[in-house]
Amino acid sequence: MSHRPEVKPSTTHSTIAFIREARRTPGFRLFDGLHGYVYARWPYLYIGIGTGEHRLARILAPVVRWFGRVLPHRQARESAGRITFADTYHGKVVPLEAATQLVTVDEEIRLTDLEKIIPYKLARDIVLKNPDHIVVLDCPCRVSRPNPCLPLDVCLIVGEPFASFVAEHHPDRSRWITPEEAVEILHAEDERGHVHHAFFKDAMLGRFYAICNCCACCCGAIQAHHHGTPMLASSGYVASVDTGRCVGCDTCTGFCQFGALSVEGGIAVVDTGACMGCGVCVSQCSQGALSLARDPTQSEPLEIHALQRQLPSTANT
Question: Is the pTM for the entire model greater than 0.90?
Fold first, then answer.
């Protein structure tokens, strides 16, 4: 059964809904709304330029650099603090179970006190309206690459007004799915060794709007992370090795998207400084030698069920 809402087959409807929701969002400005519209309306151009793969990337590079300088300074004056690009557009690593919780929420949620979980200065709210409205979109990062990982349709847009906007503006690259189908996509991507990221963006009403399933060869965020731009926050966990079970097969090192695993002396070793706690290695280890342990030096996990219990006063719209 589809969870597609009954709306008119027009992009006008979803655009108006986005604008209305933006007006209800505290602190959201006209500039943010225009930015959000451009990002969601032309994500393949936006991401393609950002990753440097689009043919216009070199031509528009000076404009992008100027925008990157001007926007942080403008926001910094308003917030009396230094704002970087990563603060405006970032992801939180979520293991499979936590990602599954985000696509199976059965009630509307408003969680805004998440500084300990989403360690960025902007875009760290979870406001889920119509959480069963989910659209799967062809991944803009994969589409921009000459030899992308497959399948392409792995980006999950969750809740309104985002799901309808994407579905109506990108009918050839998206489709409505049920929460059950979203869970199937998450499990399939986990089996492929891909990392789940809950994405937040200032221009997307300053909150969570999508789960991307990412690989180091295609994902712009992972590549930015590797090059020193902290666009990704740890899940709050770190991989741990049971040396009694590990046979040094080296399988886990090939699947780690963050280069945090190696085999030394016949035993897997975790670089805790590089590990993001995604859990991919855990599911790929046939010996059951790997597990996730809470890392107190990192931000708290994004686990929506636990948050609902801990923050009941904000868990309503």
Answer: no
